[in-house]
Give the backbone structure.
Amino acid sequence: MTEPFGAYLHLPYCPYKCHYCDFNAYRLPRAEGARQEMAAAIAEEILRSPGEDLGRTITSIFFGGGTPSVFRPEEIGEILQALRRRYGVARGAEVTLECNPGTVDEGYLRALRRLGVTRLSIGAQSFRAETLARIGRLHTPAQTRQAVRAARAAGFKNVSLDVIYGLPGETPEDARASALEAISLGVEHLSAYALELEEETLFGRLARQGRLPLPPEEEVVRAGDLVAAACEAAGLQRYEISNFARSGRRARHNMLYWHQGSYRGFGPGAHSHLWGRRFWNAAPPGEYLRRVGAAGEAVAGEEVLSARAQMGEWVYLRLRLQEGFTLQSFARRFGLPLDAAYPGVRDSLRATGLLDAVPGRVRPTPDGRWLLHRIAAPFLA
Amino acid sequence: MSGQQDRIRNFCIIAHIDHGKSTLADRLIEATGTLAARDMQEQVLDSMDLERERGITIKAQAVRLDYEREGGERYELNLIDTPGHVDFSYEVSRSLAACEGALLVVDAAQGVEAQTLANLYLALEHDLEIIPVINKIDLPQADPDRVRQELLQIGLDPTAAVLASAKEGIGIGEILEAIVDRIPPPQGNAQAPLQALIFDSHFDPYRGVVCHVRVLQGELRAGARLRLMATGAAYEVTDLGTFRPAPTPAAALAAGQVGYFAAGIKNVRDARVGDTVTTAERGALSPLPGYRPAVPMVFAGLYPSEPSRYDVLREALERLQLNDAALSFEPETSGALGFGFRCGFLGLLHLEIVQERLEREYDMDLVVTAPSVVYTVHYQGGRVERIENPAALQPERGLEEIEEPYVEATVIAPTGFVGPAMELCQERRGQFKSIDYPSPDRAVLTYSIPLGEIMYDFFDQLKSRTRGYASLDYQLIGSRPGDLVRVDVLLNGEVVDALSFICHRDQAPSQGRSVCEKLREVIPRQLFDVPVQAAVGGRVLARETIRALRKDVLAKCYGGDITRKRKLLEKQKEGKKRMRRLGQVEVPQEAFMAVLRRGD
């Protein structure tokens, strides 16, 4: 089997911005040609990207954003076509597109399916109308159900829903109810994220002013545990901190991230990782378009990880996975045993009850999973 | 003309804080053309950055003003600036000893305040001619008549007061005339053996210690061999002159004059403020009165955040000491903090200044323990020890008695606030001594209060309880026995020596509780519940619990942006660096100061 290689496409426009979102996303410009111009620039960036990636066949594609589903099928198609021409896409590759309820119908989804999109990730976030309004989502729970039905009707066999817990005004039971609704729609995959407050968002500001009714930490943890239990009971197995899937339906593209794999990102602010070198594009759409127009690329920064930094990052990313990693896999990857690279660290983490004591394997305990950054810190030293 | 004593006037400006001392000094410098207006930096005399930022004078400075009277008579006016904070009262007294007169600046709206009084008494002790200056008369709230009334009540001639506004340049000419007319010229014998008073010194990396001196008798000449009478050490003058305000070389300083000299002195400790300079041969028989070595009153532990920076801290302290004779330090070891220094300071402001200079000028990251006064401990069997660090107290050896330092505190407050002011003094174990009414609406309270009770937040409390109207001054009056106990603080069941403090037995429960609450607020949550306890002799007085952290993980990966995630983690680690690990508990630096705010 060939080594996995991913492509990430950042489509930065949204019909509106949610109160908690600090992603590189912008309100869709009114000008008719804006989407088209963006799609064309991304295709151009792909086609003119340097040959270092050639010889790699893409095994997973992810359209993220923003709200990729505000783009027309022909614009998505143009980008996919560019990827095929420049890199080649493996047979059976996973091609995911993120979409928001209210922006998609069966006809649109059929068109995507014909273009080769194999997987949909739908942003449900909550199934309480009141909560959706509070967090600035302009869709209803009914529209979420409708979107999943449309996906099925269009022939999608691999559908994922996103939900958020720890939302203002919500109890752990509310979060559990949303998860149960999502599960009852029969999806193959569920991502359940704890709300993160980012400074530069409306929620960040409100929280600083003490005006956001956030649940206490204890309740967020309980909500997360309730959601996880509901998923597991329904046969959606946790494979990463925030991700649950039926057997064989893990998101291959996301696994690439956790496995420290290589991927190329295209579009404003998109990140790439090629064998220890991480680099990223200019984030503002205007600047991105200018740069691609002028030079065919828009790289704005990079970092080359030292061997030590790669090691720490590898450990941190693998610890996010339910199975953690084996001592053997670490030694194979880096040529020395974990305990030699980080003397004493594993023992002290086990002593505090954050790491499991399974022989030969390193993985967080259930409590440890909630405190992953505490576990990761000594490895990133 | 130099050397003609009848054309010299030496004076200082004394005032309560913010009554306009520095601005007045600036105007005098400007009006005499010593510095052109365009070269004036706001408040020339406060030359340390810290002084300008805080609007206070830390080090005394001197400047020579050449004043030409109408009719062409020229005078040499030496303005000697004095530190404005009670931590530096000895330095103030030495500056006063270098003068014959003083401008007593009183704010026309605020009137006489505690420091006005304290400084006035000091000036009268030195037999100085006082010229009252009622400043800020341009303010709408100015009430010069009321201030005149207050001046009368403190024994000054109100008709002699000059009305001025340094800010607006009003009354400056009149003040200069008053200086010449009313302040007596120096009366030194130019033929007598040299006696010069060091009223300040600073360290210059190229010339060594530069001493600021007032020549009282004889003459100080370039190239002369000198002897410093307190230390007995001899030096040869390499350089001398006057401040105008930049150092301006001269051949000699005659009796009555003020200036500076350098003599290759390596350390300010060898040229102490208050010491007498004389010639190595045929010198003066006795020194000038009033010298005393600097005595630190407040002690605190200074520890490097990173143990590996211990040597850097020692070097930094050594270098600061070159310029700060009052700073003392000795190595000490803390079970909690490792290797550091127990440092002695004149007061809390002095501590803060040293801490800031270490952080700014030497890039030190410090853990400072709560300051403590010096206790005199009588153990059974007659052994007596001075305790500068509460952790050093050994109750198990059997305590006879503990003495603590007391001050006499003067509080001036509007009569309407006498109640709250007295209440505060009483809460702080003050013993009432007297109350006076210098004017119908103002009271002067005198209390003896333990220094340990007054040094932290007493002044802030006083201000807040009197809506900012009360003022405070105090001086040390010796030690007295008290019913004192050491309160130990336990984190996760272990005593943290750096958090121990000594207080009165009756206050131990409430202060212990307050410290526990403060610690619960400032110590971040750990992976487990952390009990915080305060105890006296093993008996727990208060307990709080820092609840365990339950969640510390990012939920989401942002389009493959692993960099952002890792940076976030690295930032968390940076924050950790500023923490000290005590046993299993990560403690931030401010925790060690929690003890300070235990009275809140």
In short: Residues 54-60 of chain B have pLDDT under 50 and may be disordered.
